[in-house]
Specification:
Order of helices and strands: EEEH
Mean pLDDT: 92
Oligomer: single chain
Radius of gyration: 14 Å
Number of helices: 1
Number of strands: 3
Length: 74
């Protein structure tokens, strides 16, 4: 077992979740936080089963994740 950091975004029509520090593109979604988390966890497991443990060997590993805002000119 390994811990993976997962970002969960709440959008107007659903929740979207994706892992940090994983090779490839893996996304899950659902009508709730829990559903999106379960969906992305299933997708991560499938991704690892399909492409192997090498997908977890990202260097350097993600140690922490931060969420912030920045003002941009539009």
């Amino acid at each position: 077992m390994r811990q993976i950091k997962i970002v969960v975004e709440k959008n107007p029509d659903c929740y979207v979740a994706y892992p940090l520090g994983l090779k490839g593109v893996v996304v899950g979604q659902g009508d709730s936080f829990e559903a999106a988390l379960a969906d992305v966890t299933s997708a991560i497991n499938f991704h690892i089963e399909t492409f192997g443990m090498d997908t977890l060997e990202v260097e350097p590993p993600v140690l922490e994740a931060f969420l912030t805002e920045a003002q941009v000119k539009v």
